[in-house]
Amino acid sequence: MYILLMIGNVGTTVVPIDSGETNLLRVINAALNQPLFFSVANHKLTVVGADASYLKPFTTSVIMLGPGQTTDVLIQGDQPPSRYYMAARAYQSAQNAPFDNTTTTAILNYKSAPCPAKGISIKPLMPSLPAYNDTNTVTAFSKSLRSPRQVEVPAEIDDDLFFTIGLGLNNCPPNFSPNQCQGPNGTRFTASMNNVSFVLPNNVSILQAHHLGVQGVFTTDFPTQPPLKFDYTGNVSRSLWQPIPGTKVTKLKFGSRVQIVLQDTSIVTPENHPIHLHGYDFYIVAEGFGNFDPKKDTSKFNLVDPPMRNTVAVPVNGWAVIRFVADNPGKVNYSK
């Protein structure tokens, strides 16, 4: 049986199961900006896929999903017939940042479970979930992801891009109310890449402007390397906390083999950043902590069986490297 479970829905979902059967459970993180741990009381999860791509199966008691990520797991009905909680709660990597530390639940219900006596309510068994800041569990789970067999990863690279990722603080726009600017001292939080914060065009989309030759909608000077090199995961100068607003793009040739290093930064606070690539799946060839060093970290690349995904969770105070072939013409968005 195939079961779809959306983490972030309102209400308590009851998932029926028969003893002895195997179910495919597709878990989707529908939260806006919160990675989540997920587990089922007394049950093991065999991970077989992520983001609609197959993975080499492995068994775990807990999975972690960034916003928008999906994970396919097999679950066996091999426990005494009863009711068991399926639970998820936040993985919070940003230091000193408020977050929702509640736990959301669904119920795995064995159809053959005995009914409680009249007037008696039996609570389902609760799983043990990692601590909200358990980065070690996140890392161990991420390192377990592999493609089922050898895959064709681009070995030669035509476009080698390096994007720093971080939060930022902008001055509150004059037409905004104070509750719309919840950063320190009345500022507004903003995301940025290579110190550029994307500004959405007002009337014409970037792709329309490109095809129709409309001028003034975007520029083609998005930096392919950080404009300023610094200790990305160390103490960052406050002068870098306010990114430059702009509608900037980088042009890629059709068929080019692309590598992107995604580097987390300590701007405002380090954080595990989920990065989605619109219109593409890609291979995650390496992840690590600290500042990416091509001289030593390239040796860690997995070019044999890396996982294919469409969303990568860039480690807090760390980096991830993805590779893909630019063979889907159009506008490609990198979004957090």
UniProtKB/TrEMBL annotation:
Q: Does the keyword Phosphoprotein apply?
A: no
Fetch the InterPro entries from UniProt.
Answer: Cu-oxidase_2nd, Cu-oxidase_C, Cu-oxidase_fam, Cupredoxin, CuRO_2_LCC
Q: Recite the UniProt keywords alphabetically.
A: Apoplast, Copper, Glycoprotein, Lignin degradation, Metal-binding, Oxidoreductase, Repeat, Secreted
A Gene Ontology molecular function term for this protein is: hydroquinone:oxygen oxidoreductase activity
Domain (Plastocyanin-like) spans 10-112, 221-334
Any one GO BP annotation for this protein:
lignin catabolic process
The UniProt entry's GO CC annotations, sorted and at most eight, read: apoplast
User: What are its E.C. numbers?
Assistant: 1.10.3.2
Where does the UniProt annotation locate this protein?
A: Secreted, Extracellular space, Apoplast
Name the reaction it catalyses.
Answer: 4 hydroquinone + O2 = 4 benzosemiquinone + 2 H2O
Top EC group = oxidoreductase
Give the protein family: Belongs to the multicopper oxidase family.
What is the protein name given in its UniProt record? laccase
Question: Can you name the source organism?
Answer: Vigna mungo
